[in-house]
TrEMBL record:
This is Nucleotidyltransferase family protein. InterPro entries: MobA-like_NTP_Trfase (IPR025877), Nucleotide-diphossugar_trans (IPR029044). Signal peptide: none annotated. The keyword GTP-binding does not apply. The keyword Ribosomal protein does not apply. The lineage of its organism: Bacteria, Pseudomonadati, Spirochaetota, Spirochaetia, Spirochaetales. Residues 28-179 form the MobA-like NTP transferase domain. GO terms for molecular function: nucleotidyltransferase activity. It comes from Oceanispirochaeta crateris. PANTHER family: MOLYBDENUM COFACTOR CYTIDYLYLTRANSFERASE. CDD domains: GT_2_like_f (cd04182). It holds the Pfam family NTP_transf_3. Keywords: Transferase.
Length: 210
């Protein structure tokens, strides 16, 4: 939990008490090493609608859902650690090869885990705790489970530990491009929350205003 944001709302506090007893026995990897080139500003510190930096919002959601949260930084790593100084019970790693792409950042996180894990980018503010639980409820052993909306695969992605060594050996910039459709268990979703990411400042402004 991030201390400075513990007093969110009565509903959030109730949710936190519930999920404390019902956390998923899985890790959540949050890749946060990129330079946010399309955004034009560092995404991690941009505020969401409630004024909470996007990275902190994502970490808070993940800590409610999963028993372990790992944030992997790269670009502006010292600033990232400062941004997370109020958060307890999370692990922060540095990917010095962050310029190689998100796959290398995910691989850095995988190097310290032995359990099943989620992957959730920091720029998806519509993801909530219920997303994690629904995805695990529909997981197929041996597959990579992820939601899909309007034909587009989204996040969070849920992967069992049997995939760890294969992912560590993958090459390229992104995990998605290294996967075959037969490897994936796609879970139909009814709204765009699972594909809505803040990939440009124009989208970010639209998110804030609507």
């Amino acid at each position: 939990m991030c201390i400075i944001y513990a007093m969110e709302s009565e509903k959030s506090n109730e949710e936190m008490l519930f999920t404390k007893k019902n956390k998923i026995e899985a890790a959540c990897i949050i890749p946060a090493g990129g330079i946010s080139s399309r955004m034009g500003q560092w995404k991690a510190e941009l505020p969401d609608k409630e004024g909470i930096p996007l990275l902190l919002k994502t970490v808070l959601t993940a800590t409610k859902a999963c028993h372990r949260v790992i944030v992997i930084g790269g670009y502006r790593f010292t600033a990232l650690k400062d941004l997370l100084h109020s958060c307890q019970d999370i692990e922060i790693l540095e990917n010095k090869n962050y310029h190689k792409g998100m796959l290398s950042t995910i691989q850095t996180g995988l190097s310290i885990i032995e359990e099943d894990f989620f992957i959730l980018p920091l720029d998806m503010p519509l993801i909530g705790v219920s997303h994690f639980h629904r995805i695990t409820a529909h997981h197929v052993a041996g597959k990579i489970s992820r939601p899909i909306y309007s034909g587009i695969p989204g996040h969070p992605v849920y992967i069992d530990q049997s995939w760890k060594e294969r992912i560590l050996k993958m090459k390229g910039e992104t995990l998605g491009r290294s996967l075959d459709m037969k490897d994936q268990n796609l879970i139909p979703w009814t709204d765009e929350s699972v594909i809505f990411d803040l990939d440009s400042y124009k989208v970010y402004e639209s998110y804030l205003n609507h």
